[in-house]
Amino acid sequence: MIRPVEFKNGALSDLRVLELGTLLAGPFCGQLLGDMGAEVIKIEPPNQGDPMRVWGRQKQGDPSLWWPVIGRNKKAITLDLRQSEGQEILKELVAKADFLLENFRPGTLEKWGLGFDVLSAINPRLIMIRVSGYGQTGPYSHQAGFGAIGEAMGGLRYVVGDPSTPPSRMGISIGDSLAATFACVGALSALHYREKTGRGQVVDSAIYEAVLNMMESLITEYDKTGFVRERTGAILPNVAPSNVYPTADSLVLIAANQDTVFGRLCEAMGRPDLADDPRYNSHQSRGSNQQQLDDLVGRWTATLSTREVLDLMDKHGVPAGLIYRAPDMLSDPHFQARKAIVTVKHPQFGDLKMQNVAPKLSETPGGIRSNSPDLGQHNEEIYMNLMQYSRERLTQLKARKVI
Prior knowledge:
Helix content is 37%, strand content 13%. The chain is α/β, with parallel strands linked by helices. It has a domain of 241 residues: Rossmann fold (3-Layer(aba) Sandwich), CATH 3.40.50. It has a six-stranded parallel β-sheet with strand order 3-2-1-4-5-6. Strands 7-8-9 form a three-stranded antiparallel β-sheet, covered by helices on one side. The protein is elongated, with a radius of gyration of 25 Å.
């Protein structure tokens, strides 16, 4: 009788990931897998470590405040993959792994004799997750490609910002995070295929392609109409009313661009006639008169307090809300009720708040099981317990700076 696998620590708790990546595009994928229960073994160069250990806002001399998020739910070992002995040790680890995750420049692993052909011969079930700027093939694949470049090439940078300014950027590393998220989707798709066939494969996630896939109908619009999307600030062209509007004491965001929702907004405004007005009675007509309609809505919201507007929108079933910053999130009762932000005990920072695991699974919820590890913190656990190395060999590897 086959005994069922228990998933007490998340849906992926029976899987092992070797994370070789640095910075964000690879490690965020590792965070997503770890959040859902996978055992993520982060492999870093001895005496160096992932630059994320020191990136992000921090007080002078203090540890990074970004690392506790990206490094959570991971174990950390050191291993020099530039040494032949380190390469051989990685091969031993691969034999015991489900995934190998990396975001080096394409060709780096092959240069070290660690290409997929070599590793899959050791473990045919291995799924290699590869995240890079331009992908593993094509004329640009060998070039260095950070997230910012992928955001520009994928079309996002050009449309972000106000039309009166040069292309802007989002205040987060969205290109890296998108590529990591698509890599995670690919990894789980490959896992499903492996369950049916027993064979692993390569997941090739390019930053520019991840960004491109978020660009909606941008390509198709140009292909059929010659239309090039431009920067439009706070609005989407021809989608109205959906904007940030002034109130008597602040700002509020209202999104009432669907026919029935617009009708409810008109009721809330005391102007039910607007829903039948030829200028506004369809998606197309509202789009053609977008500025005029936004001005009309804005003049109405400016006569009310933010709370009054939000209460009216809620009463009439119109999507509306505030533009949140971190303090707003921490004090919001909905965030609190869903535990969207949690407090973890951290050895260096004490009580540390961070975003919780998403999405929420009803049967096998993910969670934050462990803090971000120190460099090489789990060397003994992995090398001695998992790999069955003797303490004498461990000492020799340290002396040769292999680990």
